[in-house]
Amino acid sequence: MYVYTCKSSSLDSKSSSGLNKLTIILCKEPQLFENCFYFYSRLHGRYHELAPHLVPMDYTNEPDCKLPLALIVNMPELKENPFRNRIVESFSEDGMGNLSFNEFVDMFSVLSEMAPRELKAIYAFKIYGNEELTPEEVELVCEKTIEEADLDGDNKLSFADFENMISRAPDFLR
Question: Are 38 and 31 a contacting pair, CB within 8 Å?
Fold first, then answer.
């Protein structure tokens, strides 16, 4: 049996989610362990690329390295998201958006298509539910939704646009 352990610091131990600060993955299948390790090492490469001068390849001497919010929100995966600051801040233990490598892994694990819906819901609430959205943020969400769903480019959602949009969200149809 393979054991993989990492410190998960993005949720506090008193969280109502029931998630602990320590995540342990027990793998009976070597292939699953290798896939987890590949994901982890690939993310370390991305983390290091954002600030090679800050992020060591070996954490022996600098185990507490953190990347600033400004670098993370400009990643291609987040750059177009109007809530990118809130997303990053919700995974940041310091509340300023600075992420350790483990927090960075937590963020991309939750953003992954493979993350359980329940885990995504916990973080969606942390991102959007802890305080009300401003009128500007509501407008931005509407604009982005129309932009993504509007097939014919008329800045309106027709029935065909709506039908296409919900067909891409299988959980909506349940």
Answer: no
